[in-house]
Predict the 3D structure of the following.
Amino acid sequence: MIRRTRAPRGAAEHTIDDAPASARGQADPSLPRGMVIAGAWSWRLLVIAGVIGLFVWLVIQLRIIVIPFMVALLVSALLVPFSNWLQRHRWPKWAAVVVSLVGLLVVVSGLVYLVVLQLVDGWPSLRDRSVASYEQFKDFLLASPLHLTERQLNDYVSDAVTALQTDSQPLLRGALSVGTTVGHVGAGLLLCLFATIFLLIGGAEIWRWVVRIFPRTARAAIDGAGRAGWTTLTNFVKVQIFVAFVDAVGIGLGALLLGLPLVAPIAIAVFLGSFVPVVGAVATGTIAVVIALVYNGWVVALLMLAVVILVQQLEGHLLQPFVMGSAVKVHPLAVVFAVAAGSLLAGIPGALFAVPVVAVLNVMISYVASGRWKTTDRPIQSDVRSKGLVTDV
């Protein structure tokens, strides 16, 4: 008779570290355990870094397509809640989509028209005041303790113009590709418009199709992560518009009270620049400081600078931590580094999309890692079956 011996209690709890070297991937037994673990982590991290680098390279190569699509996602995140609100109030779907798109185009066109009108009316005065301010600054330097002469100032100006002409040669050579650039911009606008229309009309169906690409066991995680990311993106767009509005009103009101011209273009420039977090409003607020220096002198320019700093302090210590932080759940330090990395990789588009990309990825990864998708319902399955879009595999 063969007697079966029962394994001691806890014998099944041995890990791979207790197995011989042959069971651990033929690791050299003379190597320290820490080195084996470090090597295993190293090649995995290298593979992950390689995949990320390949993805970033593909995005940069396909930027003519990727940038319009990402703009369409941001615009859709703004318009989808409004379109859904209209549909809940018994508007037909086509009417809700048309009103949302036309309303956005009217608002943007009105802002552009207002800026162009103000600049056309104020350009002669700005040109004359700039020349007068230069002459005043020149007289100040001539009378200063620096003991500069007229000839020295003219030489400095001539050297600056020569350096500018030399540095602008690449720009002049790049002018030959203006037609291609205009063509890319036009194609990008058309792609953005069509993508926005299709996302407004059938965004849910498009997402269901994307989820069905993944294996059945991963669909619940992908679906839940995508919905969480979309919610975060919608919150980001709403909050960013509010933050940009506060920056524009604060700096624009300061410019109005200090008697600056071109108040409307300044406010609109600050509003648009604020969509680049941290640095956008500062860069556009500098325009107001320069205009104050040209028109009203250095005292008013310092006061305008104080207004810009005050508004930025309000945004940095109140709006960003409490409003933006609760919406995107990203630390301000991560925001700064994300904007810096995005601008280094892709310029202005990179700085614009850095924060929403980081926020969405953060929420999606956190959702998958939390395991909440294991206990929630899977609406994607029933929705797809009921609509008959695809069949089970």
